[in-house]
């Protein structure tokens, strides 16, 4: 007798399991009828043996399910909704909520078959709540005397919990009347119920629970708003939790920050390239603060106690960044800091209420420890390092030679912020190599890099490539692991190859391919790592917000009406003589040429320094009379040293060693190294120094006498004759320069029998003469400036403009230190004499309100002047009180980068740089965000001086085809192809002077990048910006609104809304290893399958919440979408097929053939994957030498590799890859994740 026969109570206690009762009764009855509130499909546990051997009546088991839960509200109901939809939803979710065992899968298959064979029939009662649970087992209803069957009534649902686990209470009824009554009760319910057989089969199929039925997971239901938050959180990889600093950052700045974070996460670096004045320093500071307070813990090694940030900056910007991040210290605070005390951070914007401690306090290297609000816990460290100090450190990754200071930095700091990053475009400079040495810590952990520049695109493709390489190692793994799987070196190489072909052929077909390749660079490289927005873009995309951008009005100042006969005579004299001057002394050390690297193949153009001297003088003349004279005088005195020494010693030369020693002595006395440095800095070139320099000098001197009859002369004697010819040439040079000096002297004001001198330009250590500052009677450019400064009623009509500088605060920019000192002293002297100007330009202490800043100005003085000139923008009230305000600031371009001078009313470009972006930088110091006042830009444009410059350039172009190698690729005044003429050059200069800031931004982009940036920011990025805007400003969400979803599992999650759209939207992420390489929103509707923008997520908060319905139909559509997602996976797999060549191809194949042995080696997979990504052109030779010399491999002439020591190869390569800062490449497998979907009815 069964345990339950002794009692009629079934409560799931041992021996009284409802499951056992049902199985026992089921096989001994002729039909069964169950009425339950619900049953879990995964808990269905009936097998063939549980049914009678012969079933006469079908369906044998009738099952009615009803509703025990609260029905949807009227607002949530949709047309066609019924309880069946709720049940299908619950059943599908239940089947997909856990991994089913093989037994459970087999049970589902049996249930499906039982229904299909009509052994079981299921209906749904949807008229009202069905709370009763009935299990009825019938034998013979016609039996008039005995019981027709057995009924069980109680609390148990037809679930695993109800049948086995829960504490239930059920009773067995056998009385005839009771069983008949319950049978009638069931039959009446059956008639009212609706069919659910097909629905149940569909649920089993679309749940994907049965292998072979490939339906995507439906997931769990969330209400629309919660799903919106979850999908936004996932789409942004959690960045939405950083919705802070809304009070500090303008909307477009906050959007920029949020888009910079995923770039940093994926690529380990980002280039903030917004236009000048758009607040890049604020954006970078927000990122720094978030890192220090723990928002991005994965940016530092997990075993590192606290995060550390280093900012590498031009010296003049250290104080500004210091003010922004940790606050300016007054004298009292500085005393505390110098004593090592903790003081509260007094920044107006960032790290407020925290504490700081000064660890190192030199002017070019400051380190602060940052403590929490209690002042007890160290949370991070910030260092400010000057570029001048940083670039002294040496690094050669290939040789493994890195200065100790750099090694310390890369271990100690996790985030490197590099301002004015365009200074790092040249890969041959030490600063570039030094930054690259910071990429990875010794354990391979990648540091992060934040690059700030407003001029990333004003040179060549190589500029962008080299900036990206600062934070990307030579595997370019991060680009291989994005949605494009692109080889950046190959892409750049292909573009440059097409460009060369087009330049040679001018073929339109090649031009089309070139534009297509440029567009590919934009999409696959530029858009991936750079945030680049112009003022024009900002104003268009952020309309309606309080963002002020007033484009300054430019005025072109033509000062030629102020030319005098004496000045015209000077210009004529310069024009006649400059071409005849050979600067002969440079030929005696002219073996040192200036080298211009052309492209990645390292082609060089070598130009004699004498030619560059002429261009240097032409540019100085454009700046003014005084800088021209000082530059010519310096060259003159150096040539005079050579002339004097050689004239005195030429007859005493008896050997070539005598000549060599004489040249070395002349170079030292004339301090030629300084001369070479000046030229190299002017043209961003390098001096070439070769071992064979003296042989070239001897050859030159011998060539001088080739046409002389010197039969019987020895080699030394021939050289001496050649040297006498060189002496004659130097004498002629000096005479021609003397004639120019005479014309200059004719312009000077005399005083006490000599020329009037106002002061001197500070002398560099390597200068051989003092530079005195003169007053010229006829300086048309200075006269035009003075006329702009007088009262309007006194201003000369010759200027031809109405605008005036009188009583305005303005800054005068010049390219040259000599010009700056000349203007400073001459304006001071003139202001002292002009009584009408005193109310404006003299203060109560009788101080003239004029300041001067050049590269020589120490940081403290420079910041003092900045604060006194722009006290509102730089919190300078205290400096003004103590030292007086400055109304006119004269500066070189040392001050044009990074500082905020928006108190000013005008910018005067006393000389006009040929690089438009320098003008943008200059004006950007004044024309910044939120500056709503009118700002004027006055650009001085040359006239007669142009003739001299054009003459020099024309001669130079005859020697080198591409003149832009000399004047700079960024110059927009000259192009490689066209001829140079006074007309075209003059028109370009004048055009440049009349362009607005907005136009200059676009004008300044190099020809190579015109096609690359065409079309602006990608639409998906634009839409993502808009999504951020709506989240913050329309919906009013903060970071706290997203806290509820950050701990949700991976999903998928889903919801239904009423929006009139009729589409299903499905959101996918795509991964390669740990890298999220892509994300997509795919929809299906009447128009078929298409990709949607992130703005589609807003449907969730704009539509009306409704209850899910026809979930099985949705599953079919999701299946179609999933097929599309699978195509994305296949494409990502196809695109990721890096091919090796040459020796690396042979080595890669040899390692693959050792796969079985390699599985036992820890670093085998990483080495093989890294090897596959390396540029064979760059790495074949060093890797081959390394492995062959260590006798780890053998290589034949066809690059077939035989591995002699597999472990040795793997360990050696792994170690060397770390030394070379190469990434450890993880799994290359591509996978998709379905994170959510929604039906917009």
TrEMBL record:
Keywords: ATP-binding, Coiled coil, Helicase, Hydrolase, Nucleotide-binding
GO MF terms held by the record: ATP binding; catalytic activity, acting on DNA; helicase activity; hydrolase activity
Annotated transmembrane regions: none
Entry keyword ATP-binding: yes
Residue stretches in coiled coil: 666-693
Domain of life: Archaea
Residue ranges of every copy of the Helicase ATP-binding domain listed in the record: 261-474
Gene3D superfamilies linked to this entry: Endonuclease Chain A, P-loop containing nucleotide triphosphate hydrolases, Tandem AAA-ATPase domain
Name of protein: Helicase conserved C-terminal domain/PLD-like domain/SNF2 family N-terminal domain
């Amino acid at each position: 007798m069964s345990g339950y026969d002794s009692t009629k109570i079934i409560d799931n206690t041992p021996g009284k399991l409802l499951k056992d009762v049902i199985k026992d009764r089921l096989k001994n009855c002729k039909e069964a009828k169950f009425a339950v509130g619900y049953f879990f499909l995964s808990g269905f546990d009936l097998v063939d043996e549980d049914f009678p051997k012969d079933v006469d009546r079908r369906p044998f088991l009738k099952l009615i399910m009803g509703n025990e839960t609260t029905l949807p509200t009227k607002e949530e109901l949709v047309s066609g909704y019924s309880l069946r939809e709720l049940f299908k939803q619950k059943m599908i979710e239940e089947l997909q909520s856990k991994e089913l065992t093989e037994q459970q899968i087999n049970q589902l298959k049996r249930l499906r078959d039982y229904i299909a064979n009509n052994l079981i029939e299921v209906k749904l009662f949807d008229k009202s709540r069905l709370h009763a649970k009935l299990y009825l087992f019938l034998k013979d209803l016609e039996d008039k005397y005995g019981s027709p069957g057995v009924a069980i009534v109680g609390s148990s649902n037809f679930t695993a919990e109800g049948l086995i686990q829960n504490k239930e209470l059920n009773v067995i009824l056998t009385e005839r009347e009771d069983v008949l009554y319950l049978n009638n009760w069931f039959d009446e319910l059956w008639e009212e119920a609706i069919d659910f057989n097909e629905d149940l089969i569909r649920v089993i199929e679309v749940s994907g629970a049965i292998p072979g039925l490939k339906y995507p997971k439906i997931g769990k239901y969330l209400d629309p708003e919660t799903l919106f938050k979850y999908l936004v959180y996932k789409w942004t990889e959690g960045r939405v939790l950083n919705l802070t600093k809304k009070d500090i950052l303008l909307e477009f700045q906050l959007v920029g920050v949020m888009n910079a974070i995923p770039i940093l996460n994926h690529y380990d670096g980002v280039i903030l390239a917004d236009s000048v004045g758009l607040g890049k320093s604020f954006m970078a500071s927000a990122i720094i603060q978030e890192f220090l307070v723990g928002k991005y813990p994965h940016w530092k090694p997990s075993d590192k106690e606290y995060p550390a940030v280093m900012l590498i900056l031009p010296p003049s910007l250290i104080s500004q960044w210091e003010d922004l991040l940790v606050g300016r210290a007054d004298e009292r605070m500085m005393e505390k800091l110098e004593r090592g005390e903790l003081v509260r951070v007094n920044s107006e914007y960032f790290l407020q209420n925290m504490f700081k401690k000064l660890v190192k306090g030199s002017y070019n290297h400051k380190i602060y420890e940052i403590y929490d609000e209690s002042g007890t816990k160290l949370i991070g460290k910030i260092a400010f390092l000057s570029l001048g100090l940083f670039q002294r450190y040496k690094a050669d990754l290939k040789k493994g030679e890195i200065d100790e200071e750099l090694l310390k930095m890369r271990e100690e700091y996790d985030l490197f912020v590099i301002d004015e990053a365009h200074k790092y475009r040249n890969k041959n400079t030490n600063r570039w190599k030094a930054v690259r040495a910071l990429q990875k810590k010794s354990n391979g952990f990648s540091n992060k890099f934040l690059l700030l520049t407003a001029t990333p695109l004003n040179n060549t493709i190589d500029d962008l490539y080299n900036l990206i390489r600062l934070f990307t190692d030579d595997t370019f793994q991060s680009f291989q692991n994005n949605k494009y799987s692109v080889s950046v070196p190959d892409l750049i190489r292909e573009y440059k190859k097409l460009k060369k072909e087009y330049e040679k052929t001018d073929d339109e077909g090649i031009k089309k391919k070139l534009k297509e390749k440029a567009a590919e660079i934009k999409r696959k490289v530029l858009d991936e790592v750079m945030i680049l927005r112009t003022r024009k873009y900002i104003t268009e995309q952020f309309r309606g917000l309080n963002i002020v951008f007033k484009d300054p009005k430019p005025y072109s100042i033509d000062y030629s009406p102020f030319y005098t006969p004496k000045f015209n005579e000077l210009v004529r004299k310069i024009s006649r003589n400059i071409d005849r001057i050979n600067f002969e002394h440079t030929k005696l050390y002219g073996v040192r040429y200036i080298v211009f690297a052309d492209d990645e193949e390292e082609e060089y153009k070598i130009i004699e320094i004498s030619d560059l001297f002429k261009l240097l003088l032409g540019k100085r003349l454009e700046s003014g009379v005084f800088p021209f004279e000082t530059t010519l005088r310096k060259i003159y005195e150096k040539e005079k040293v050579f002339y004097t020494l050689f004239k005195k010693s030429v007859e005493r030369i008896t050997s070539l060693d005598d000549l060599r020693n004489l040249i070395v002595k002349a170079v030292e006395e004339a301090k030629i190294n300084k001369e070479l440095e000046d030229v190299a800095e002017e043209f961003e070139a390098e001096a070439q120094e070769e071992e064979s320099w003296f042989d070239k000098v001897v050859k030159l001197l011998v060539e001088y006498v080739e046409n002389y009859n010197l039969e019987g002369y020895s080699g030394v004697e021939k050289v001496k004759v050649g040297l006498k010819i060189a002496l004659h040439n130097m004498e002629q040079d000096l005479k021609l320069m003397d004639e120019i000096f005479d014309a200059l002297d004719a312009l000077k004001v005399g005083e006490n029998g000599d020329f009037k001198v106002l002061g001197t330009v500070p002398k560099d250590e390597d200068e051989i003469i003092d530079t005195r500052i003169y007053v010229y009677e006829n300086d048309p450019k200075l006269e035009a400036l003075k006329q702009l400064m007088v009262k309007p009623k006194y201003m000369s009509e010759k200027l031809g403009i109405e605008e005036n500088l009188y009583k305005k605060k303005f800054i005068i920019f010049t390219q040259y230190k000599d010009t700056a000192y000349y203007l400073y002293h001459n304006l001071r002297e003139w202001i002292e004499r002009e009584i009408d100007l005193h109310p404006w330009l003299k203060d109560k202490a009788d101080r003239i309100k004029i300041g001067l800043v050049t590269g020589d100005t120490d940081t403290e003085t420079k910041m003092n002047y900045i604060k006194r000139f722009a006290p509102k923008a730089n919190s300078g009230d205290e400096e003004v009180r103590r030292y007086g305000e400055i109304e006119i600031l004269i500066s070189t371009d040392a001050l044009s980068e990074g500082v905020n001078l928006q108190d000013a009313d005008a910018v005067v470009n006393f000389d006009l740089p040929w690089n438009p972006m320098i003008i943008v930088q200059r004006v950007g110091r004044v024309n910044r965000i939120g500056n709503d006042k009118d700002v004027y830009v006055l650009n001085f444009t040359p006239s007669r001086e142009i003739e001299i410059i054009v003459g020099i350039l024309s001669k130079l172009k005859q020697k080198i085809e591409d003149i832009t190698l000399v004047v700079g690729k960024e110059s927009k005044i000259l192009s490689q192809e066209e001829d140079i003429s006074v007309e075209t050059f003059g028109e370009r200069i004048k055009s440049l002077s009349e362009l607005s800031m907005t136009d200059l931004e676009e004008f300044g982009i190099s020809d190579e990048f015109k096609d690359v940036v065409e079309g602006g920011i990608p639409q998906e990025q634009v839409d993502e910006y808009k999504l951020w805007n709506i989240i913050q400003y329309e919906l009013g969400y903060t970071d706290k609104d997203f806290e509820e979803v950050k701990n949700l599992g991976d999903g998928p999650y889903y919801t239904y809304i009423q929006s009139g759209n009729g589409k299903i939207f499905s959101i996918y992420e795509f991964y390669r290893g740990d890298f999220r390489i892509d994300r997509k929103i795919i929809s299906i509707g009447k128009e078929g399958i298409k990709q949607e923008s992130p703005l589609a997520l807003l449907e969730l908060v704009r539509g009306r919440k409704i209850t899910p319905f026809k979930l099985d139909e949705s599953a079919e559509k999701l299946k179609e979408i999933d097929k599309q997602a699978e195509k994305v996976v296949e494409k990502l797999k196809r695109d990721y097929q890096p091919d090796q060549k040459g020796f690396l191809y042979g080595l890669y194949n040899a390692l693959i053939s050792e796969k079985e042995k390699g599985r036992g080696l820890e670093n085998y997979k990483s080495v093989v994957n890294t090897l596959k990504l390396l540029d064979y052109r760059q790495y074949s030779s060093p890797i081959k030498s390394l492995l062959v010399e260590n006798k780890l491999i053998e290589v034949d002439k066809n690059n077939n590799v035989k591995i002699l020591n597999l472990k040795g190869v793997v360990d050696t390569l792994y170690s060397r890859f770390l030394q070379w800062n190469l990434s450890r490449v993880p799994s290359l497998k591509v996978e998709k994740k379905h994170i959510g979907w929604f039906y917009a009815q």
